[in-house]
Amino acid sequence: MHLHPQKSLYDLAQQHHLEGLTLPSLLALTKEQEGYSIDKAKRFLAFQGRINNEMLNHQVIIQNPYTAWFEQGDQNPAQIKAFIIQFSVFSNQFLIAQLHKMIHADTLESMHASKEILANEIGVRFQSGQQHENLNNQSSTEGSIDGSRFSFSAAHFEWLYIIAKKLGLSFAEIGQPKHGTHATLFFCNELIRLYGGDNYQISQAASYAVENWAAAGFWKQLIQGLQKYNDQTGLDLPLGFFIWHDKLEAQHAAHTQEELEELYFTQNLDEDAFIQNGNEMLAGVAAFWDGLEVQRQELATTH
Ligand SMILES: [Fe+2]
After folding, report:
1. I need a surface site. Which of 154, 187, 229, 268 has the fewest CB within 10 A?
2. Rounded distance, CA 142 to CA 215, Å?
3. What residue spans define the domains of the chain?
4. 124 - beta bridge partners?
5. pLDDT tens profile 157-202
6. Which of 226, 191, 188 is nearest to 209 (CA)?
C-alpha cells in the first residue's frame, strides 16, 4: 500500500526514464497488467517521438492559412456564407462516417462510445450529474446520452442552420453533398473510408489524427473570427455550434493520449502503418481547409 499512489507512480516513471507516459499507463505498469512492461514503455516513448515528428507536425495542425485568415474577421458576406455551407456539408457527412465507425466497432464499449457521439450529433443531449442548460439551450459536453431525451433543437446541424438563416440562406441551400466543393467531399469521403473504416488499426490512426487536429485550436480561431464579424456587421450570429465544439475538444484532448497508449500496450501496433494512416487522414483534413482557402480567395471581390 502506498500513501501517495500518484507520487510513487512519478517516482517509478523517473527511475525508468518514462516521464511522458499518462497516469493510467503508469498504473497499469505497476500492476503488471497484460501487455505492459518497462521495455514496451520505452519503445512507446520512442514511437511517440516519431508521431510528434512525422504526424503531429503536419501543416494543417501547426499552420492552417485559412483559419489564420478567418480569425481576423474580415470576411465579406459571400465568404462567410460559403464557409457555413461547406461546414454544413461536413457536419452531415460526418454522421455517415460516425455511423460506419459505430457499425465497425469490435467491442460493445466502443460501439457505445461511437453511438454516443452519433446520437448526440443528431439531437440527444449528454446528461451529467450537475447539468445546467446554457445560453443556446444546449446540452452539456459531458456525461452520457443513456436515458437522455432527444430533441430536434439539440442537433448540431440545426445550430448551423440558425446561423445560415441569419445569413439569408434557405434550408435547401445547405447541408447536402451537392453543395460541397470537390475538396469538402474528398475530406468527407476520406473520413468515411479511414475514420469509419473496418480496419481497426487504420480507424484508430485516423481517429488519433482527427482528435489531434480538432484539439489544435482551430475552433478558437473560428470563434474569434465570427465574434469580430459580428462586431463589424451587428449581425449577432449565434456561435453555439462553435463554442460547444471547442469545449468538447478540450475534454477529448486529455483522453486521446491515454487511448493511444492503451492501444499500443494491448495491441500489436504497426508503427509505420499508424503514422502513414494518420497522415493520410490529415491529408484529407488539409484538403478541406485548402479548399476553403481557394474558395475565399475566389470570393474576395464578390459581395
Ligand atoms: Fe458536432
Report:
1. 268
2. 16
3. 22-30+50-57+65-298
4. 150
5. 999 999 999 999 999 999 999 999 999 999 999 999 999 999 999 9
6. 191
Q: How far apart are CA 46 and CA 40, in angstroms?
A: 10
CA pair distance 222, 278, nearest whole angstrom: 24
Residue 126's pLDDT band, with cuts at 50, 70 and 90, is confident
Question: What spacing in Å lies between the alpha carbon of 19 and ligand 1's midpoint?
Answer: 34
Please give the radius of gyration of the chain, using alpha carbons only, rounded to the nearest integer: 21
CATH architecture of 22-30+50-57+65-298: Up-down Bundle (1.20)
Q: Residue 156 Cα, ligand 1 centroid: separation in angstroms?
A: 5
| Cα-to-centroid distance, 117 and ligand 1 (Å) | 8
> In the predicted model, what is the mean pLDDT of residues 82-103?
97
Cβ neighbourhood burial of 107 (10 Å; 0-12, 13-18, 19+): exposed
Dist CA 57 CA 53 (whole Å): 6
